[in-house]
UniProtKB/TrEMBL annotation:
<dbReference type="GO" id="GO:0005524">
    <property type="term" value="F:ATP binding"/>
</dbReference>
<feature type="domain" description="ABC transporter">
    <location>
        <begin position="6"/>
        <end position="225"/>
    </location>
</feature>
<keyword id="KW-0547">Nucleotide-binding</keyword>
<protein>
    <submittedName>
        <fullName>ATP-binding cassette domain-containing protein</fullName>
        <ecNumber>3.6.3.-</ecNumber>
    </submittedName>
</protein>
<keyword id="KW-0813">Transport</keyword>
<keyword id="KW-0067">ATP-binding</keyword>
<dbReference type="InterPro" id="IPR051782">
    <property type="entry name" value="ABC_Transporter_VariousFunc"/>
</dbReference>
<dbReference type="GO" id="GO:0016887">
    <property type="term" value="F:ATP hydrolysis activity"/>
</dbReference>
<dbReference type="InterPro" id="IPR027417">
    <property type="entry name" value="P-loop_NTPase"/>
</dbReference>
<dbReference type="InterPro" id="IPR003593">
    <property type="entry name" value="AAA+_ATPase"/>
</dbReference>
<keyword id="KW-0378">Hydrolase</keyword>
<dbReference type="Pfam" id="PF00005">
    <property type="entry name" value="ABC_tran"/>
</dbReference>
<dbReference type="InterPro" id="IPR003439">
    <property type="entry name" value="ABC_transporter-like_ATP-bd"/>
</dbReference>
Length: 278
């Protein structure tokens, strides 16, 4: 029988009179890796905060295994003056770890995340994706039973995504459970053994085999100076990466025509378009 770490039983959540989540049931077991999908504002972050004990539920119950240890990493982390190594060290000491264990483990993790040359850079000068790495390193100094990650891939480049996927797979082998919110459907089948979508306040299971069948295109544009992607395209784009005025998009093939048509109308110049290898 699977070792149950956390069980959500018909939980609901309101903010004032606004319903966010309704009758959510979810069982988190040892070694499970769960991806939560849904549009912005659907309740993914709220559900993670509820599991972490940072937000109260309006109805239902939550059961935790005795002494289960959780680590929650938000999508946005404050840009503080401490360097990456100073922050990790201080958090380790607060957590009761020895200086020796902190130094040894920290070095291993910074190397694993290819951040050895950034340990003395103040966090306020790091990119969003790099700051997320620092937060993950801090959480893994003393590995938890359950790791909760809010949009861990949103600030990562392709190489960092590969490293993160490898890390999640290794954590699973070590017995950790990982629950993450994720926009990148094209990566879910590599990341998770269970996937759910929050839609109309409810948690709906997704078939990972169906996700593997979805085809994607890569579109690269040159954008006019100061131009942003129209908000009407938000739900059609899986991932957007900016490099100055160069824009790289990953889009479901079924949506490519609509995205292309709108961006060309907005004076974006298409440079490359090709099917994505998965």
């Amino acid at each position: 029988m699977d070792h149950i770490l956390i069980s959500l039983n018909s939980i609901s959540k309101y903010f004032g009179k606004k319903l966010i989540l309704k009758n959510i049931d979810l069982t988190i077991t040892k070694e499970s890796t769960i991806a939560l999908l849904g549009h912005n504002g659907s309740g993914k972050s709220t559900l993670l905060k509820i599991i972490a004990g940072l937000s109260k539920i309006s109805a239902g119950t939550i059961d935790y295994a005795p002494q289960v240890k959780l680590a929650y990493i938000p999508e946005n982390f404050p840009k503080i003056d401490l360097t990456a190594s100073e922050f990790v060290k201080y958090m380790g000491l607060i957590g009761g770890l020895s200086q020796k264990k902190i130094s040894t483990r920290m070095f291993e993790l910074f190397q694993a995340f290819e951040m050895a040359d950034m340990i003395d850079v103040p966090i306020k000068h790091l990119s969003k994706g790099t700051i997320q790495k620092v937060a993950v390193i801090q959480a893994l100094l003393d590995p938890p039973d359950v790791l909760l990650l809010d949009e861990p891939l949103s600030g990562q480049d392709t190489q960092s995504q590969k490293l993160f996927i490898q890390m999640v797979q290794e954590l699973q082998q070590q017995g950790l459970a990982t629950i993450m919110s994720c926009h990148e459907r094209f990566l879910v089948s590599q990341l998770a053994d269970h996937a759910y979508e929050i839609s109309d306040h409810q948690l709906l299971p997704l078939d990972l085999s169906d996700l593997k069948e979805i085809k994607y295109d890569i579109l690269i544009f040159e954008a006019p100076p100061g131009t942003k992607i129209d908000s009407s395209l938000q739900d059609l784009i899986e991932r957007a990466e900016w490099d100055h005025n160069r824009l790289k998009l990953i889009v479901q093939s079924d949506h490519s025509h609509a995205v292309l048509k709108k961006l060309l109308k907005d004076e974006f110049r298409l440079r490359t378009m090709e099917g994505m290898k998965q």
